[in-house]
Amino acid sequence: MPTIALRGISKRFGSQVALRDVSLELGRGERVALVGENGAGKSSLMNVLYGLYAADTGEVRVDGRPARIRTPADALALGIGMVHQHFTLVPTLTVTENVVLGREPTRVGQLDLPRARAEVLATCARFGFALDVDARVDALTVGSQQKVEIVKALHRGVSTLVLDEPTAVLTPQEADELFTVTRRLSDEGLTVVLISHKLKEVLAFATRIAVMRRGEKVAEVRPAETTPESLAALMVGPRGPRPASVKAAPGPVVATLHRVSAGRLREVSCAVRAGEVLGIAGVDGNGQRELAEVLTGMRVPDDGALVVLGQRGALTPGRARALGVRHVPEDRLRHALVTDFSVAENAALGRHRAPPFAAGARIDVAGRLAETQALLDAHDVRPRAPHLRAGALSGGNQQKLVVGRELAGAPKLLVAVQPTRGLDLAAVDAVRGRLLDFRAGGGAVVLVSLDLDEVLALSDRLLVVHDGRVTGEFPREAFDERVIGRRMLGVLDA
Amino acid sequence: MTAFVLALFDSVLDAAPALVFAAVGTTLSERAGVVNVGVEGMMRAGAFAAAASALVLPTPWAVLVGAGVGAAIGALHGWLCIWARSDQVVSGMAINLVMLALGQFLLEAAFSSPSGTPPITQLTPWLGHSPLTWLAVALPFVVHAVVQRTPFGLRLRAVGEKPEAVAAMGVRVAPLRLAAVVASGALAGLGGAHLSTAVLDRFEHHMPAGLGFMAVAAMVFGRWRPLGAALAALFFSVGDALRLSLASSAPGLLEVVPQGVLLAMPYALTLVVLSLQRRGASRAPAALGRPYDPEVR
Amino acid sequence: MLEATPTPPGRLRRAARELARAALPSVAPILTSLLVCFVAVAALRGGVAVAVDAFLAMTWGAIGDVPRLLEGASVAVLLRPWGESATKAALLTLTGLSVAAAFRVGLFNIGAQGQLMVGALAAAVVGAAVELPAALHGPACLLAAALAGGLYALGPALLKLSRGVHEVISTIMLNWVAVALIENWLVPGPLRAQVGGGNSVAGTAQIHETAELPRLVGEVSRLNAGILLAAGAAVVLWLWLARFVGGYEWRAAGLGPEAARAAGIDVRRTVLRAMLTSGALAGLAGAVLVLGTEQRYPATLGAPYGFDGIAMALIGQGHPLGVLATSTLFGGLRAGGTRMQLFGVHKSFPELIQGLALLLVAARLVWTKLADRWLPAREGGP
Q1: Mean pLDDT of the residues in chain B
Q2: Chain A partners of C252 at a C-beta cutoff of 8 Å?
Q3: How high is the pLDDT of residue A238?
Q4: Distance CA C107, CA C249 (A)
Q5: How far, in Å, CA of B263 to CA of B243, rounded?
Q6: Which of A121-125, A191-195, A243-247, C252-256 has the lowest mean pLDDT?
Q7: Angstrom distance (rounded) from CA B31 to CA B25
Q8: Which CATH class is domain A253-340+389-488?
Q9: Which residues of B touch C364 (CB under 8 A)?
Q10: Is A452's pLDDT higher than 60?
Q11: Is the CB of residue A4 less than 8 Å from the CB of residue A80?
């Protein structure tokens, strides 16, 4: 009999269906992987199990008995713990304080910090984690923060642990370490649910794999019975062919950085050429964001020389735009769109001072509407509703709107950061297709992505950054994932 | 000179508690992540309720009524901010405006007087001062201990920084925040009650005349810490007492430095301190003003 | 998925529906608040009949004594109340627009009160100390007030942009700095009116007649040009926000500052300009008060006009025309409110209605949910 059974779970967010009649069973000591594309419902299903989302229909059974899990407290009481993709740690508190939060040891009503510390140390020792329990969480590396998250769950004595995309922010080596520890825990009886869309790690780790697509569970397989290709086919469903990669024909240099430092970026030199996709690979927070910001004028370099499209020296976002630099930022809801503006108002953003969007100092409402209609048609943004609030569009259509807007008006350099994050597959294909079309037409693309597979698939040339410095440069012919992984960690030899 | 200092000390002990209660209370609400600019209105409500009920109840009970009414208004603020997702500044200002008008209206309706309630029996002094004075001496330390050394305090500090973390550990965010805002309201009400039962012996129509906003200033000045807020409140009170005693003992000095300039000092000082801080060095809780919705995607 | 072009009546109906949806979160709280206050008067002052009489008195006090006009009284029974209502509405509109303008770039200007005070003082000083022909004197006073208010608002904006100091805190502080410096020092001290003959007058010197706002209908009513100024400001601000590229940039900077910056908008400059405008509007309110009603800076302004502006901006949902409508309503209620005193209801009663309405507006989620239930949006959804 399974320890935990989810039966017929459905969940809607407004008009969007997140989960449709999903059932899943988890047995003691199993390592179950939940795979699927972004937005397939993996995290939503586990958030229901953890009491963060209330399911619209369906039930959860624990040890055969119906369980009411309405809050994370209920889940924890039933021995279910979860490590979220976005950490739920309080940065200003210490490791100890974070771990005991919610079940603090007390002595006559007071917080018993010495005892808390001893308990946390004991948990760390028992499960083999090396952590400075007195450090403030914001002083820890991302990898250590992840360990704190796991210790938090283990400290509550969970028998089932859900890991939501745990390797998204880790280097391949840190990820290996995580899986080694987790496998040992599972051998000791811990049930582990791994949410991931990385098929290789799933095949290596899981004892059973559940595949989700568009809110439904479409298959359940054993690793031995499947291949990455057939898993991918299950995840994706029927779809068109990927855009074929054409051999690049790099043109003249459009931008150069010479020993540029900005924030975490340190003394980076590189050149971007027309007609190529320059990929930037690296673990989150190693300076790639600063690189994109410097190129788009969002950040003034602390030091070094910058030449973008013939202009020397510091840029402003407005100046960069005028030169022909465009930006598809990582967080489109904050940096690319004004969600409370209409689609048409967003289509104008950045071009709003010139015709057809403006007539002198006044807004040209009719011109804006016509231009927006054309943009929506050209990039298949659905629905074709220029007056709709941009925030009401789905993520994929928002991104198609942004990419379409940024590629309008013959730009020369496009800086795209995580351009396909969180999109459904059709939208991923559309966005990648647009980038490659732009490059084929002689445009220069700087592609920053934390998804190594994406940079490897799209780039003509790849820079690896670690700790703010370039630790490797590879032409497409020399892409080797293990070498690149080591460079991402800053290991230069071997 | 000694007599002057002693007199100053005495007047601070009489006047400061209202500000101390309100400022320390505000830290509780804000540390939990709920902006409280409604202190002024909560103090006014507490002052009125205490004075009005002291006409029929023993004064100590009336003080409790004042604190209770403050707590109730805190609960209203909490409901608006936590469940109705109201903008927290809007809710606080709305409470201020309602209490301003309601106080005047009730004065007219219940006591047919535009200026104040009839006099009441003040709290019986204890060691020369109102018992609330001694409570105000102890309270900052108690609140500090609660915030720093109890599970509730740990959760309070956590929920103002990152409510998601608290929720993920099985602690419900809404009741925790509500408790903090209600406590904040109760302390503001207590501060108001001090005005009408200890500083004066009635509710006057202009009460608390901006003390609530000064409490917010003290809270910011004290960097969102109970002891800091209490010290800032004390500092402002000493300044005020000094100004008043100088006005009577050394009127010549006020020719050089006008009263109005002295009155502006606490606010101007708070501004100066804020403008000297490095950008991003503010100690305000990270999630201050941000409503928490577990299902936001 | 192109939408079918709706027929004109269909389009009209949809526009009406959209307007109703947009106005519900303002109108429902106002009506609820009026109802609650009506019940309160009925309960406290002896019955529904008294409450009806009191509310009718307030209404006639606001829009003019229509019954007496029908009985044959002179048109003054209309004009006099109009003057009172319009004077109050002008102040509410200008302070409301001040708060609304700052809202549009994402700043909460709690400091309209302080900006109004320095504006009023500037108008009073220029009105009394300078001698100019009437055609120039009034505008000069208005300009001085706008400038003073604008500069006083610039401080919090600069502090926010350069030091990250929250504008709610800094504007609260500056309000009290203004109270202390103006009403506790300048007005009773250096700027106090010098009156001959031993008569003592509180406040600053009286302004020259050339500086007074012109009366619109002569001496029969206090109706002055202030309301025209306020209504004009509302229309200009509305056009600016809805029809001009500059206004679009304000809105972009307010709703999505980072997206606006990435799009090449100079958010800093936009915020500074909006805050300057916000302060100038509050300063103008101060000028209207001095030039239209008080003729000097009085010993104390005595009312929290700036806070009323917050109420107007929020109840009017930050829309300039919404602010104008809300202010006209509450200006009328306040003017009429004085007549309720005959029924034992204090003249602060309209402020209670206003405060309660604001509190109800604050519970915006409740009203938008009701709007979704009563008037579900047709278009939209992904």
Answers
A1: 88
A2: 338, 341, 345, 349
A3: 63
A4: 15
A5: 8
A6: A243-247
A7: 10
A8: alpha beta
A9: 84-86
A10: yes
A11: yes
Identify the three-state secondary structure at position B149.
helix
What Cα–Cα distance (Å) separates residue A319 from each residue in A313, A325, A354, C31, C203?
Answer: 11, 9, 15, 51, 53
Across the range A6-23, mean pLDDT stands at 86
C168 to B37: CB separation less than 8 angstroms, yes or no: yes
pLDDT value at C1 more than 50: no
Q: Any CB–CB contact under 8 A between C186 and chain B? A: yes
C69 Cβ contact partners less than 8 Å away, ≥ 6 residues apart: C75, C77, C78
Give 3-state DSSP helix, strand, coil % of chain A, rounded to 5: 35, 25, 35
Say what the pLDDT of residue C245 is.
Answer: 96
Contact C252 A336 (CB under 8 A): no
Q: What is the secondary structure of A180-217 as a DSSP string?
A: HHHHHHHHTT-EEEEEES-HHHHHHH-SEEEEEETTEE
Integer Cα distance of A325 and C262 in angstroms? 11
Q: Are residues C141 and C211 in contact, defined by beta-carbon separation less than 8 angstroms?
A: yes
For A138-153, the pLDDT digits (tens) are 888 888 888 899 999 9
* Residue range(s) of every CATH 3.40.50.300 domain in chain A: 4-236, 253-340+389-488
Type and span of the H or E element at C170: helix C167-178
Cis ω before A91 (30° cut-off from 0)? no
Does C263 contact A at CB distance below 8 Å? yes
Flag whether residue B280 sits within 8 Å of chain A, measured between CB atoms.
no
ipTM (interface predicted TM) = 0.86
pLDDT single digits (tens) A400-431: 999 999 999 889 999 999 998 777 777 888 89
3-state secondary structure of C93: helix
Residue of A45, A101, A339 to mutate, interface with B, max B Cβ within 10 Å = A101
Cis ω on the peptide bond leading into residue B208 (within 30° of 0)?
yes
Q: Which chain A residues contact residue C255 at CB under 8 A?
A: 338-341
Which amino acid appears at position C1 of this protein?
M
Higher-confidence residue: A143 or A279?
A279
- Which residue in this structure is represented by tokens 């104040």? B116
Cα(C225)–Cα(C212) distance, rounded to whole angstroms? 10
Tell me the CB-side half-sphere exposure of residue C7, using CA atoms within 13 A.
Answer: 2
Cβ separation B261–C181 shorter than 8 A: yes
Q: What is the mean pLDDT of residues A203-229?
A: 89
Chains in contact with A, where contact means 3 or more Cβ–Cβ distances below 8 Å, are: B, C
pLDDT digits (tens, 9 = 90+) for C184-210: 889 888 888 876 655 667 888 888 888
Residue of B nearest to A53 (CA): B295
Q: pLDDT band at residue A18, thresholds of 50, 70 and 90?
A: confident
- Helix or strand run (H / E) with residue C127: helix C112-129
Q: Which two tokens stand for residue B171?
A: 């602690």
CATH class of A4-236: alpha beta
Residue C18 has pLDDT above 90, yes or no: no
Six token digits for residue A308: 């973008």
CB A418 within 8 Å of CB A281: no
What is the average per-residue pLDDT within B224-231? 94
Per-residue pLDDT, averaged over C91-99, amounts to 97
Average pLDDT over residues C52-78: 87
The distance of A287 to chain C (nearest Cα, Å) reads: 19
| pLDDT tens column, B195-205 | 999 889 899 99
How many helices (H) and strands (E) in chain B?
A: 12, 0
In whole angstroms, how far apart are CA A255 and each of A261, A270, A281, A289? 16, 8, 19, 17
For chain B, what are the domain ranges? Answer: 16-229
DSSP-derived 3-state class of residue B33: coil
Asked if the Cβ–Cβ distance from B158 to A90 is below 8 Å, we say yes
Element (H, E) at C274: helix C267-288
C-alpha B183/C-alpha C313 separation (Å) is 30
Q: What is the pLDDT of residue B297?
A: 43
